[in-house]
Amino acid sequence: MAKGLIAEKLGMAHIFDKDGKVITVTALRVGPCIVSQVKTSAKEGYDAIQLAFGAAKEKNLSRAEKGHLSKANAGFKAHLFEFKGFDSAPELGAEIKLQDVFSINDTVKVTGTSKGKGTQGVVKRHGFAGGPAGHGSRFQRHPGSIGSNTTPARVFKGMKMGGMTGRDKTTVRNLKIVKVIEAENILFVSGPVPGSERAILTVEKLG
Description:
Low-confidence stretches: none
Oligomer: single chain
Helix content: under 10%
């Protein structure tokens, strides 16, 4: 069985544990997912399973996508992800539900795309401290020097500067599952996860 599933971020909330302590959690709608392809080392060069998640309109899929999904009788799905390290390969077209993979107190990692923040300066993008904020300093949120003089007469690659911020693939590890609602396919994990509400994520069990 796969060690992960595809999920949709619903939002954040607070819940109480058995000791009455408040825990900040993120609610995820996890699965059910359809096995759309089983990859083997003999054919593709590595072992993995591809899962399909989320309903899609037929007009939004290409002929190749519809043909690929029809082999697994998966219907029209919007998102496809691969997972490695499964215990046993499920059959093509099999449905994997939340309770088939996860349970309370499992430790997981969540991968998704972080929120986009547009073009930002070095203070917000890289955490620069900036300069004195006094009147006339003229150096408050500037990056400062980025190179030397005549030698080397250029700016080295990788210098921290302003630019597009966010929209990066981000993984948060060691999150704990604190609550499961199987009837609604909802999972509550401790702490925040990447992305905005309705973002598509992958949740994988660690250990």
